[in-house]
Amino acid sequence: QVQLVESGGGLVQAGGSLRLSCEASGRTSSWFTMGWFRRAPGKEREFVGDIRWSDRRTYYANSVKGRFTISRDSAKNTMYLQMNSLKPEDTAVYYCAAGMTAGNFDTWGQGTQVTVSS
After folding, report:
1. Beta-strand pair 10-13/112-117
2. Residue from 40, 38, 17 nearest 86 by CA
3. Is 82 exposed, middle or buried (0-12, 13-18, 19+ CB in 10 A)?
4. Which conformational region is residue 100 in: left (phi greater than 0), alpha (psi within -120 to 50 degrees), or beta?
5. Ramachandran angles phi, psi of 18, nearest 5°
6. Which of 9, 17, 20, 50 could form a disulfide with 81 if both were Cys (CB 3.0 to 4.6 A apart)?
7. How far apart are CA 95 and CA 92, in angstroms?
8. Cα dist. 55→8, 51, 91, 112 in Å?
9. Mean per-residue pLDDT over the chain, rounded
10. What are phi and psi of 11, to 5 degrees?
11. Residue bearing the bigger pLDDT, 59 or 30
């Protein structure tokens, strides 16, 4: 069974940086995409960005474009989310997810808290 485990969350001041990791265990060769989502207090879950497993093409939400970067290390079965120029509105629980078809994420991690103080 495939599992995803996020790490790297924490408390950071506005303007700072954090890097989240999502380590996958189990069979990942059939995945099409991995992505990051977030849920802020009192808000719906929001798509942050994703990366296609085959060609590493990335897509980002407008709210994070230019500040966040998704990458992956196939040898480590790990996906990363580099977050720069963080804003208080980036405060949320961040989840990684994976799917076998475009836009469909059916495996989820447990989430990691990111808090940005002003």
Report:
1. parallel
2. 17
3. middle
4. alpha
5. -145, 155
6. 20
7. 9
8. 25, 8, 30, 27
9. 94
10. -105, 130
11. 59
What confidence tens digit (pLDDT) does each residue in 69-110 have?
999 998 898 999 999 999 999 999 999 999 988 888 999 999
Q: Rounded distance, CA 10 to CA 1, Å?
A: 28
Output the six-digit token pair for 89: 């509105």
Residue 21 is encoded by which pair of tokens? 């990791």
- By the 8 A CB rule, do 112 and 8 touch? yes
Distance, CA of 83 to CA of 85 (rounded, Å): 7
Q: What is the distance in angstroms between the CA of the first residue and the CA of the last residue of the chain? A: 40
Tokens of 46: 């929001």
| Residue 117 identity (one-letter amino acid) | S
CA distance 77 to 90: 26
Query: Would you give the distance in Å from CA 23 to the centre of its chain?
Result: 11
| Stronger pLDDT, 55 or 10, i.e. the higher one | 10
Phi-psi label, residue 93: left if phi above 0, alpha if psi -120 to 50, beta otherwise:
beta
Q: Which of 89, 14, 95 is nearest to 47 (CA)?
A: 95
